[in-house]
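Internal tracking record. Fields below are filled automatically when a chain is submitted to the structure queue. Please do not edit lines marked as system-generated. If the sequence contains nonstandard residues, flag them in the REMARKS field before resubmitting.
Queue: standard
Priority: normal
Entity type: single polypeptide chain
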Amino acid sequence: MPTIEFGFMDCMIAFTLAFIITFSATPIAKRISMKAGAVDHPKDGRRMHKEPIARLGGIAIIAGFVVSVLFVFFTALLDSPEKDIVRQLLGIMAGMLIISATGIIDDIKKLGPWPKLTLQIIAALVTILVSGLRITIFSNPFGASLPYIAVPAYISYPLTVLWIVAITNAINLIDGLDGLAAGVTAISCVSLFFINLFINKDLSIMPFVSVLILALAGSSIGFLPFNFYPAKIIMGDTGAYFLGFMLGVISIQGALKSYTVLSISVPLLVLGLPLMDTVVSIFRRIKTRKSIVLADRGHLHHRLIDMGLSTRQAVITLYIASAGLGIAAIVMAERGVMSAVIFIIMVSLFVVTGAYYLRDINAVPPELIVKDEETAASEAACESTQQTSGGEDGETEKKISGREE
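SYSTEM-GENERATED OUTPUT FOLLOWS
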């Protein structure tokens, strides 16, 4: 495992630099999108925007991440050369290059679902083979004497590919509302970073994965000012594939595997929202005898919109759900499985109920409207009566003054 040391300040530099680069590069990405013809048109019911919009925002996210990670990496490498971490970084960057190229081509020229899936598998394989990163253990919550279960290589490799490809597509599938994918990714990264803090305890020595996590968070947050509703630009498949791919790689890397209960349970919780939406979508399409690779309008965010929520309300609701799952993962790491289950049940009750009634947050009950109408009619009648009586009094005064004369 890599032994090169990164400090807490290195992580903060990675976050800040990624934010600045992404924020600054997004207007440039919009210009490039328009020049390249990478524009998304609202041609079906799945799309929430009403006008054509640039869709190559993902290149700004990638630029922020790459620049920040390479800067922190090379400045640390000058002090402490380490072959293992160089290999790890090369593997991640190689896979990232393939997945980014896939997204860019798809945003400009449109690739079919099966060529995209093939390229995603190739990107995952390249990362695994070059970097050596893969799922090698599972936690055993029922075996105190055997806390880990080793995963054989013939299972480990396909399982890791499946995990990375699944997260890649999960983030892509939830990228249906302005700001949703970037926000969920940022929340997931923050959750993973706090879990890293609980694992390491020492802020002066942070693992390389912490740098990657905060760089990805900074890139996502740097893109949000332009992507939150109403969006000026969307990340497209370029950004969604990149964010999903990096989350998949990060969640199985380094320190996140060193904690007994973290080997698979915590990443599943942290990424629970996009994974749940993906699994439900697959079963829904199988049930309706549709291809699992064809897009539809049945995702969780679409259902919230159909319930009557606005785009902002739906996105914020899903942010809260994602944050709740992230905190549940932290609770699991610190307090155990039962505490996490209780936490999820409590939070779910409030989130689900609140989301149901959120659609009526600005509505006025009909009975109050009726009362207001009755009150208004009564006031109008009183004013009319007063005006009439005032007019009669005036005429009476005129008559009296006329007689006196």
